[in-house]
């Protein structure tokens, strides 16, 4: 399927060594393309490259992705690998990742050419708010996206399989709302459908008192703070709309 005609988003996933600012040890990608039929599709354009992180990797992160120092010792560094993946030939409208803020720490505007980002985690909160959890793999098994080949999406916590899974969520999002809406949601903090922790855990925000919402609106967590303020603003607007119109006196009083 051509990636030059109508639209193309490249999904990115990174694995890192856990010890420094440029410690990427693998980058994976999967393209989602707008076809001639007007629908978005996951293509066969996918892949992964191992990267030398420039230092020994921590055992904690090796235990997640199972990439050994010996696998990457003789490979190019991140700065040499990134541009060919993040700025491929042909049209590309955006980059995407699940919890994209992590990838954006490494995929800076200098190496992406300033492409906008779609965060599939933030968009999933908006499109599928009734799901119980929103990790990449939990979305995979709660949603069971059509066409996702189970084996290509394994092993989890490797860059290409994770990008492949994310791309199926993104495809369904793009076929539900315009790309401009996904980009707008991605530029904001996450709008959480339920309280994530504490005594109110699991409750929807519209069930909380104004006082409790006010406490959440001062949270250090940007997503909790944003969600609480959004609910408070919704209530303020509802009260304004439901308030009775003030009585007005006639321009000239009637003499009795």
TrEMBL record:
Q: Which GO terms describe its molecular function?
A: exonuclease activity; nucleic acid binding
- Chain spans, region Disordered: 231-256
Query: Where is composition skewed (Basic and acidic residues) in this entry?
Result: 231-242
- Please give the coiled-coil regions recorded for this protein: none
Q: Which InterPro entries match?
A: Ribonucl_H (IPR013520), RNaseH-like_sf (IPR012337), RNaseH_sf (IPR036397)
Q: Where is the Exonuclease domain?
A: 8-179
SMART domains in UniProt:
EXOIII
**GO terms classed as biological process:** DNA metabolic process
**By what name is this protein known?**
DNA polymerase III subunit epsilon
Q: What is the scientific name of the source organism?
A: Ferranicluibacter rubi
């Amino acid at each position: 399927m051509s990636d030059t005609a109508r639209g193309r988003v490249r999904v990115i996933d990174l694995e890192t060594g856990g010890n420094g600012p440029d410690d990427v040890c693998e980058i994976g990608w999967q393209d989602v393309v707008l076809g001639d039929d007007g629908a978005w599709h996951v293509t066969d354009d996918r892949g992964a490259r191992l990267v030398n992180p420039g230092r020994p990797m921590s055992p904690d992160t090796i235990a997640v992705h199972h990439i050994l120092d010996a696998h990457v010792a003789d490979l190019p560094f991140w700065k040499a690998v990134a541009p060919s993946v993040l700025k491929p030939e042909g049209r590309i409208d955006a980059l995407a990742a699940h919890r994209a803020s992590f990838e954006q720490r490494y995929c800076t505007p200098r190496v992406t050419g300033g492409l906008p980002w779609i965060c599939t985690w933030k968009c999933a909160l908006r499109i599928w708010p009734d799901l119980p959890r929103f990790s990449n793999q939990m979305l995979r098994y709660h949603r069971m996206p059509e066409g996702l080949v189970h084996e290509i999406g394994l092993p989890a916590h490797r860059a290409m399989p994770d990008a492949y899974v994310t791309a199926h969520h993104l495809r369904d999002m793009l076929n539900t709302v315009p790309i401009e809406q996904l980009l707008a949601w991605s530029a904001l903090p996450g709008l959480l459908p339920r309280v994530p922790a504490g005594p109110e855990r699991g409750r929807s925000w519209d069930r909380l008192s104004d006082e409790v919402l006010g406490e959440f609106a001062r949270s250090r967590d940007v997503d909790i703070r944003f969600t609480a303020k959004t609910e408070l603003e919704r209530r303020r607007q509802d009260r304004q709309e439901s308030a009775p119109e003030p009585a007005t006196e006639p321009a000239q009083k009637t003499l009795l």
